[in-house]
Specification:
The chain contains 9 helices and 4 strands. The chain is α+β, with helices and mostly antiparallel strands.
Length: 210
């Protein structure tokens, strides 16, 4: 397998965690988003969307981090990243989507660049935008975790939801977002970071981190 990703991309980090949890080997293919390598014709030949992450598994190409993780879960079932019961699977997917759809799209690199370069928003206001959506978005996750507390987002083993939560917290810390108002979120984050799959795939541990 080959994973095209960028060390600081939270979506890429999600997939690195999942691959590590399942003990799967892969070739690390860096795509530097800040330098615009995702728009190069060489990458366009691989990715129709010109986004990361992208997983190449033999002749198959899978894009979008959550789709990649579910693909991995179906092709390499152990350890499972989704619960066995329908209600549990729905809850885990909902938690992951609360981050991947409600928080992340508002603060990814393309949006932040549009704010500053096209709309001429100041760096200070851009950061305020970022912190607002991350902090309020995490509040929604906090309420759900508080309603059904467990070691991880759902139960005693990591799931798709944890693969999504941890990278968002890394980004929140990078932009100095408040996290003291989400104690259950941070408790789960700390539990995850005790596991090598989360710690050894963190952005600063990637080969393209510089």
């Amino acid at each position: 397998m080959e994973l095209y990703n960028y060390f600081r991309s939270s979506a890429s980090y999600r997939v690195r965690i999942a691959l590590a949890l399942k003990g799967l080997d892969y070739d690390y293919k860096p795509v530097h988003l800040v330098k615009g390598e995702q728009t190069a014709e060489s990458y366009a030949a691989v990715s129709a969307t010109r986004l990361v992450p992208l997983l190449r598994d033999g002749d198959h190409i899978v894009t979008q981090s959550l789709a990649i993780i579910e693909y991995l879960d179906e092709t390499h079932p152990q350890p499972p990243l989704l619960p066995a019961d329908p209600v549990g699977r729905a809850r885990v997917r909902a938690l992951a989507l609360d981050i991947a759809c409600e928080i992340h799209p508002l603060n990814n690199l393309r949006v932040l660049r549009y704010l500053t370069q096209s709309l001429k928003v100041s760096e200070e206001d851009k950061d305020r935008w970022y912190r607002h959506w991350v902090e309020t978005g995490l509040e929604a996750v906090e309420r759900q975790l508080a309603a059904q507390p467990a070691r991880f987002c759902h139960g005693d083993t990591p799931t798709l939801a944890d693969c999504t939560l941890v990278p968002q917290i890394f980004n929140a810390q990078r932009f100095k977002c408040r996290t003291d108002h989400v104690p259950n979120v941070m408790r789960v984050f700390d539990a995850c970071m005790q596991l090598p799959a989360f710690d050894q795939t963190r952005p600063e541990a990637c080969p393209d981190a510089f």
